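HUMAN: Please help interpret these tokens:
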Amino acid sequence: MNDLSYQLIKNGLDAASMRQKAISSNIANVNTEGYKAEKVEFESELKRALGNGGVGMESTSESHIGGAAAKVSPRTVSDESNSMNENGNNVDIDSEMVSLSANEIYYSALVEQMNIKLRSMSYVINK
């Protein structure tokens, strides 16, 4: 499937899945000495790839607006901010719990968007 919106939703779901794993790892290691929290970067990279153009434009080449956005992939990075504890661990459990809830909402919204997309494709195919 070569549809830009499909690819963007898929990449967003991948990011949400990676973020879930990172948050779970952070929570599991809240008391681990020297552990540095992990976070997933995706939305900021996507915003940068879209620039001022937006997603609504049709691209006829992968180098056009939108083509670059479809290639943006989530990546996990280590949070090197100051330590929360004396043992060098920088996991903030309250922040992680908020991130976990926000990620669940984000994931559910993307799943709903994917379902809408697939239903509309199914409708077109069956008519």
